Amino acid sequence: MSLLTIPEQGGLSAQACAERARGTAPTLRRRLAAFLYEGVLLFGLVMVVALVYSIAVNQRHGLHGRQGMMVVLFLALAVYFVWQWSRGGQTLALRTWQLRVVTPEGGPLTPMLALVRYLTSWLWFIPPMLLTWLGGWHDKGTISAAVLGWMAFYVCLTWALPSRQFLHDVISGTRVIDNRKQVA
């Protein structure tokens, strides 16, 4: 099997993937459940990478080497997502919820397209964080409200966007499809 071919996991043929890529996205509930589960799973990856980084730079305080830690975590997450999305279109969370990321034609993502999707997926977090930084708002209540408010707005955007995909999928030219053999 080539690095960029979609395996027949879930029993979907390339033709079935193409048909689903042209349709509407899976339910918002399933996609958000996968998003939440992805966060739980990423906690482990982030902890391991942070531990290795902390040992490597002899970090004795949480603020020491903080910018380096953020860069390393950003790159580790990029490697994880680009690798998973370009090797079959599924992370562990997407596999669990039987979802898959594909091109608009239903094909596999190239590493470059997966990288574009990774970068644009930061639209979930960057706008409210930038707003709170520019506004000089540093208390956790304001930051939490800004992030949660933005995320609610971002979710609501799916009702106005083509095929009910998330904004980052529309921008990056990717689609999330239902990977179940029989869709109810």
Walk me through the structure.
- Helix 6 runs antiparallel to helix 7.
- The model has no long low-confidence stretch (mean pLDDT 89).
- This protein is mainly alpha-helical.
- Strands 1-2 form a two-stranded antiparallel sheet.
- It is 59% helix and 4% strand.
- The protein starts with 13 loop residues before the first helix and ends in a 6-residue tail after the last strand.
- The longest helix is centred in the first third of the chain and has 29 residues, at 28-56.
- It has helices at residues 14-22, 28-56, 66-86, 92-96, 111-121, 126-135, 140-156, 167-172, and strands at 99-102, 175-178.
- It is globular.
Q: What share of the residues lie within helices?
A: 55-70%
Tally of structural domains: 1
Number of strands: 2
Strand content: under 5%
Order of helices and strands: HHHHEHHHHE
Q: Tell me, rounded to a whole number, the average pLDDT.
A: 89
Number of helical stretches of at least 4 residues: 8
Question: What gyration radius follows from the Cα positions, in whole Å?
Answer: 18 Å
Q: Low-confidence spans: pLDDT under 50, at least 5 residues?
A: none
The biggest sheet amounts to: 2 strands, antiparallel
The computed structural class is mainly alpha
**Strand arrangement, largest sheet?**
1-2
C-alpha geometry = globular
End-to-end CA span: 30 Å
